[in-house]
Design goal:
- The complex is a heterodimer of chains A (174) and B (451).
- By secondary structure, chain A is α+β, with helices and mostly antiparallel strands.
- Helices cover 40% and strands 13% of the residues of chain A.
- Chain A has seven helices and four strands.
- In chain A, helix 6 links the parallel strand 2 and strand 3 (141-147).
- The radius of gyration of chain A is 17 Å and the shape is globular.
- Chain A has a single domain, classed as 60s Ribosomal Protein L30, Chain: A.
- The model of chain A is unreliable at 1-6 and 8-50 (pLDDT under 50).
- In chain A, helix 2 (13-19) runs antiparallel to helix 3 and helix 5 (80-94) packs across helix 6 (113-133).
- Chain B is mainly β and 451 residues long.
- Chain B folds into two domains: 19-30 and 51-175, Rossmann fold (3-Layer(aba) Sandwich); 184-445, Neuraminidase.
- In chain B, strands 1, 4, 5, 6, 7, 8 and 9 form a seven-stranded mixed sheet that branches. In chain B, strands 2-3-32-31-30-29 form a six-stranded antiparallel sheet, with no helix packed on it. In chain B, strands 12-11-10-33 form a four-stranded antiparallel sheet, with no helix packed on it.
- The model of chain B is unreliable at 6-42 (pLDDT under 50).
- Classes of the chains: A alpha+beta (174), B mainly beta (451).
- The A-B interface holds A 74, 109-115, 117-119, 121-122, 125, 143-147, 149-150, 154, 156 and B 193, 197, 220, 222-223, 238, 241-243, 263-264, 266-267, 280, 282, 286-287, 308, 310-311, 324, 326, 330-331, 352, 354-355, 368, 370, 375, 394-395, 397-398, 413, 442.
């Protein structure tokens, strides 16, 4: 199902959050969100993550619509730009404890395949740890590493490789 | 000149070693084998010829039977085998001066004029419905005498196998080393892309013929590994959307799941005695090496580090495990006793060394060696400590020794698809084998024998 949220609704998201108990957001968090929503972008920290607790997973304008985190070569560090996305998902999951998610770790094609399974796992575990630090219950999270076996982009150039070094955030049916 | 009747694999004569003629020059040759109906065609391109290859003439075998010709071209299979080893240079058919099929027809002086050291002739005879007798003789052209000669019974489906066995006998007679032509390879192919991608594990003859599907799946298959007796293959399957290790009988196809722990289950490697597998598990937090006793499924943990520890292989004496670890900052090879203890680093050349395979005599380790943006196959000589890079691709991987230790098969990239290639262990001879069916990767050479 896709909601059509116009700009007004997007701006009024905070108001929705404050009023809507069915989303499962805590009133206390919503109050904190109201305070912070005008402060600009929070790139990390649990407090900022409360902003997205009520957003729908189907909202194409929400950070939750971004389901892929990318990585530098041979790295499992989450980039500055992706930290907000990860925080958004963490916040959503923390406030929807019945929602399960799978973190799929992937690598580019270079090097040895089983080592790449390990590298993909390391990336997925990194995202898992951030989720858990932000209050997501470990039971909600599954991880799997596909190494280089399921590329998003075929090809032997950095253009393809950078699209394959990733963690995909896959929500179970909701 | 005598021919012995013999079943393959039983004792044979010890002939004298022929003196090898020296033949200088680089040989570039493209050999196209015509596919049988329903078979995948195999193209062999010899990319780097070998100096000192032994000149040999393999004459088309004679045929007597109801059909117009024999079901298999035995001489062509033998010539292709010998050529593929890099140690022999068979004469092209058009250069054969005559076509003897039995000893009395051989005129040695004709063959001497061609500077050929050795001559192989033979016959195929139909002895019953789908039953044949194959006879061959190997001659020393300069000494004008037979070195070895045998005949074998064979059913129609065994003809290629017998031809490969003859190649092994010739190879061993002339080089003193055991041949590895009557062997198999396991490998993975993929086809399609995205949601329609399929993964298939196959076993084929080591010349690429007779591919048999072991398993096909819409989810990844990885890391095939032969048991030492060649009867079983272990592999990793993601069919349940997570990695699990199965062991499957090559002959019957029956399989059992042996590892399905939370997290990674990967890189199975059989112990030489077949009782255990080494494997990678991340059940305790991050990828570590374990040994599993197959009868009891009991586990022994061998590594304990926050690094990625994976890709275990056994030394041939069954006492140690060589594995990949990035505990030093980037992937390198390490060795640990199968009884446990501290790991010792083995590779110091370059920033990336992974995916090891150990030679059958334990003296060499092949690996994926990354340097200057290219991933190539390199071999570490354990006695000298020297690392030699054998290939020159950009994305070479998955090295696997032949069971006689003379060749390494590996996966490489040919434009837009994966293909298999083989290189001699001294790096002097290299060839590409492309099975024209999809993207091929992860070749593993079987032990001696056929299953």
């Amino acid at each position: 199902m896709k909601f059509q949220l116009n700009r007004l609704l997007a701006l009024a998201l905070v108001a929705l959050l404050a009023g809507c108990s069915s989303t499962g957001s805590k009133t206390g968090d919503a109050a904190a969100v109201e305070d912070r929503s005008t402060d600009g972008v929070e790139t990390s920290g649990a407090a900022g993550a409360g902003s997205f607790a009520g957003a729908s997973l189907d909202d194409p304008n929400s950070p939750l619509a971004q389901r892929v985190i990318y990585f530098e070569y041979d790295s499992s560090e989450i980039s500055m730009g992706d930290q907000e996305t990860v925080a958004a998902h963490a916040s959503y999951l923390a406030s929807h404890p019945d929602q399960a998610v799978t973190l799929e770790g992937h690598t580019d094609e270079r090097g040895s395949r089983e080592y790449n399974i390990g590298l993909g796992d390391r990336r997925a575990q990194t995202v898992r740890r951030v989720f858990e630090l932000q209050g997501v219950s470990p039971q909600q999270i599954s991880t799997v590493s596909y190494g280089e076996e399921k590329p998003a982009a075929e090809g032997h150039s950095e253009a393809a490789w950078r699209l394959n070094r990733r963690v995909e955030i896959v929500y179970s049916a909701y | 000149m005598s021919v012995k009747s013999l079943d393959p694999g039983i004792r044979r004569d010890d002939g004298e070693m022929i003196n090898q003629g020296l033949l200088k020059g680089i040989l570039l040759m493209v050999l196209l084998l015509v596919a049988r109906p329903g078979m995948t065609a195999l193209t062999i391109e010899i990319t780097k010829g070998m100096e000192g290859a032994i000149p040999i003439a393999v004459v088309p075998f004679g045929w007597s039977g109801a059909a117009a010709g024999a079901p298999e071209n035995i001489a062509a299979i033998i010539a292709s085998d010998l050529s593929r080893s890099g140690r022999f240079e068979p004469l092209a058919d058009r250069d054969l001066v005559s076509h003897p099929t039995e000893a009395s027809q051989v005129q040695f002086h004709n063959w001497r004029m061609l500077n050929v050291d050795n001559l192989v002739i033979g016959q195929v005879r139909e002895t019953g419905p789908q039953q044949y007798s194959i006879q061959f003789q190997l001659f020393d052209v300069f000494r004008t005498r037979q070195m070895i000669g045998y005949s074998f019974p064979a059913g129609k489906s065994e003809l290629r196998r017998v031809a490969h066995h003859i190649s092994d006998l010739i190879y061993e007679q002339l080089t003193g080393e055991k041949g590895a032509f009557n062997t198999q390879i396991a490998y993975i192919t993929t086809a399609g892309s995205g949601k329609k991608k399929s993964y298939t594990l196959l076993v084929a003859d080591s010349d690429g013929y007779n591919p048999q599907t072991i398993l096909t799946s819409s989810q990844p298959l990885m890391s095939p590994a032969w048991s030492s007796d060649g009867n079983q293959v272990a592999y990793v399957s993601f069919e349940k959307k997570t990695a699990e290790i199965y062991i499957q009988s090559v002959a019957t196809g029956t399989r059992r799941k042996v590892a399905s722990f939370p997290g990674i289950n990967g890189a199975p490697a059989w112990s030489p005695d077949g009782k255990r597998i080494a494997l990678t598990l991340s059940r305790d937090g991050n990828p570590e090496i374990y040994l599993m006793t197959l009868s009891s499924k009991s586990l022994k943990r061998l590594t304990n580090s926050p690094a990625i520890d994976t890709e275990p292989v056994w030394t041939p004496d069954g006492r140690s495990i060589v594995f990949t670890s990035d505990r030093g900052g980037s992937p390198q090879l390490y060795q640990v006793s199968a009884g446990g203890g501290s790991a010792k680093r083995l590779t110091f050349d370059g920033k990336y060394n992974a995916g090891a395979d150990i030679s059958p005599d334990g003296k060499k380790i092949a690996m994926v060696h990354g340097a200057n943006g290219a991933y190539r196959i390199a071999v570490l000589d354990r006695e000298t400590g020297l690392l030699r890079v054998l290939t020159d691709g950009k994305l070479d991987e998955s090295p696997s020794f032949s069971p006689n230790g003379s060749m390494i098969i590996y996966a490489t990239d040919a434009g837009n698809r994966g293909v298999l290639a083989a290189v001699s262990v001294d790096g002097r001879f290299r060839q590409r084998l492309s099975l024209q069916a999809g993207n091929v990767r992860e070749p593993v050479w079987s032990p001696f024998g056929r299953h």
